[in-house]
UniProtKB/TrEMBL annotation:
<feature type="transmembrane region" description="Helical">
    <location>
        <begin position="152"/>
        <end position="174"/>
    </location>
</feature>
<feature type="transmembrane region" description="Helical">
    <location>
        <begin position="272"/>
        <end position="293"/>
    </location>
</feature>
<dbReference type="GO" id="GO:0015179">
    <property type="term" value="F:L-amino acid transmembrane transporter activity"/>
</dbReference>
<feature type="transmembrane region" description="Helical">
    <location>
        <begin position="12"/>
        <end position="31"/>
    </location>
</feature>
<feature type="transmembrane region" description="Helical">
    <location>
        <begin position="127"/>
        <end position="145"/>
    </location>
</feature>
<dbReference type="Pfam" id="PF13520">
    <property type="entry name" value="AA_permease_2"/>
</dbReference>
<dbReference type="InterPro" id="IPR050598">
    <property type="entry name" value="AminoAcid_Transporter"/>
</dbReference>
<feature type="transmembrane region" description="Helical">
    <location>
        <begin position="43"/>
        <end position="65"/>
    </location>
</feature>
<feature type="transmembrane region" description="Helical">
    <location>
        <begin position="329"/>
        <end position="349"/>
    </location>
</feature>
<feature type="transmembrane region" description="Helical">
    <location>
        <begin position="420"/>
        <end position="437"/>
    </location>
</feature>
<feature type="transmembrane region" description="Helical">
    <location>
        <begin position="194"/>
        <end position="217"/>
    </location>
</feature>
<dbReference type="InterPro" id="IPR002293">
    <property type="entry name" value="AA/rel_permease1"/>
</dbReference>
<keyword id="KW-1133">Transmembrane helix</keyword>
<keyword id="KW-0472">Membrane</keyword>
<dbReference type="GO" id="GO:0016020">
    <property type="term" value="C:membrane"/>
</dbReference>
<feature type="transmembrane region" description="Helical">
    <location>
        <begin position="98"/>
        <end position="121"/>
    </location>
</feature>
<protein>
    <submittedName>
        <fullName>Amino acid permease</fullName>
    </submittedName>
</protein>
Length: 444
């Protein structure tokens, strides 16, 4: 009888940390300082927005870390929601992420990396679409090998992206001559929202850390490594975001940062290293975004794989290649959906991923409530309660995560009602798909 092929448990703590950091930190850390500052209205409030967003994200990470330790399954958020609230809720979680959000967000990141690449090497911007296709195909190709190859690529790209982050923090701290606190911005965003909208912008920049949970089945010790990777990774991300923002605010006057917009960090690096520094930063950002692409390509196909195993997606998605122990069909399917979206829907990909984020935060909220449910359930007899990760400062920490999630949902409804409605409709489209597969399973 042929041996059953299973996912390979070969990823340790360093792979986990790199996936969390590398998946979250893409280009936002280099480009969002001006937008958050302008929306907040002052440098003090801008830094406070980054810190508040970081505290909410850390509370969310600590909450999910306990859920992941109690439910160490491949599939991440889909598996958690399915275990907590049943198959319908679980399917809708996975449906939104795999079919809509995954191809949209991967195409969006690839498109922006391609645009930077075209500018860097002097190609017309019209070539960006095909560069994006090449990037997606390249990252998908890496993921077709054993998972240690993609994990190694993630460690390398994460290490590289930390270099300009460290430079921006150090230069701003020791060579900046502007007071980073107390500066006001004369040209503030006029649509309202102020500090609250600035926090919302940072929460979107922090998003993506939960994707590590999708590969829990490939971690050597998921009950130990998943919580450590999420908590450690999110903590480092908060330090990086607040540190870079402080460095930029300390190096340039607020009005100058707002005037420069996306070029603010380039101005700081050029002040330190000249034009060479600006070009080196461009390369570092492109590499950073390839690392983010890789993290997404590792994570999302695992969710499709888990749903297929449960009979809720086409069966071919649950096939593992015997030699590599990788969900090859799921990886290729996500890559092809992404490439199709990048080619056909070039100008609307960012909008689609923004719309999908709203629904994901609804499912985040449900997951955060789940820690209260799990606390009242009996632990698996094979689990030692003394070694199980528990959310510190319970119940304050999960309540902070829930309040933050409700803030994102409420803010989106107020500021983008049409997007919220479209997002809900896209989720509900998954219902007939679920009942189709449910009926199909019952007939087998």
């Amino acid at each position: 009888m042929p041996q059953k092929v299973e996912l390979k448990r070969s990823m340790g703590i360093w792979s986990g940390l790199s996936l969390v950091i590398g998946t979250v930190i893409g280009s936002g850390i280099f480009f969002k300082q001006a937008g958050v500052l302008q929306t907040a209205g002052s440098s003090t409030l801008g830094l406070l927005a980054w810190l508040t967003g970081g505290v909410i994200t850390l509370a969310a990470g600590l909450t999910i870390a306990e859920i992941g330790a109690r439910l160490p399954k491949t599939g991440g958020l889909y598996s958690y929601i399915e275990s907590l609230y049943g198959p319908v809720a679980g399917f809708l979680t996975g449906w939104m992420q795999v079919v809509i959000y995954a191809p949209a967000v991967i195409a969006s990141i690839a498109g922006y990396a391609a645009f930077l690449t075209a500018n860097f090497i002097g190609l017309p911007t019209s070539s960006a679409t095909w560069i994006a296709v090449i990037y997606v195909a390249f990252i998908a190709g890496i993921n077709l090998f054993e998972n240690r190859v993609a994990a190694s690529f993630q460690v390398i790209t994460t290490s590289i992206k930390l270099i300009p982050i460290a430079i921006l923090i150090i230069y701003g701290l020791f060579f900046g001559k502007v007071n980073a606190l107390g500066q006001t911005v004369s040209d503030t965003v006029s649509h309202g929202g102020g500090f609250g909208m600035a926090i919302l912008a940072t929460l979107f920049a922090y998003d993506g850390w939960i994707l590590l949970a999708n590969i829990a089945g490939e971690l050597k010790n998921p009950r130990r490594d998943l919580p450590r990777s999420i908590v450690g990774g999110v903590s480092l991300i908060v330090v990086a975001y607040v540190g870079v923002s402080f460095g930029v605010y300390h190096a340039l006057p607020s009005d100058r940062i707002v005037a420069l917009q996306n070029n603010a960090t380039f101005a700081v690096v050029r002040a330190a290293f000249g034009d060479f520094g600006g070009r080196a930063l461009s390369i570092a950002i492109i590499i950073s975004m390839l690392g983010t692409l890789n993290g997404k390509m590792i994570s999302f196909p695992r969710m499709a794989y888990a749903m297929s195993l449960d009979g809720l997606f086409p069966k071919y998605l649950s096939k593992l290649t015997r030699k590599t122990q990788e969900p090859t069909n799921a990886i290729l399917t996500v890559a092809l959906m992404t490439i199709a979206l990048a080619i056909v829907y070039t100008n609307g990909v960012d909008r689609l991923s923004d719309i999908a984020i709203f629904t994901i935060w609804i499912f985040y909220t449900a997951a955060f409530f789940g820690v209260f449910i799990l606390r009242h359930q009996t632990l698996d007899k094979n689990v030692d309660p003394a070694t199980l990760f528990k959310t510190p400062l319970f119940p304050i920490t999960p309540l902070v995560a829930i309040i933050g999630a409700l803030f994102v949902i409420g803010s989106t409804v107020i500021n983008d009602f049409s997007g919220a409605v479209i997002s809900i409709i896209l989720v509900l489209i998954g219902l007939p798909v679920f009942y189709y597969y449910q009926h199909k399973r019952q007939q087998q």
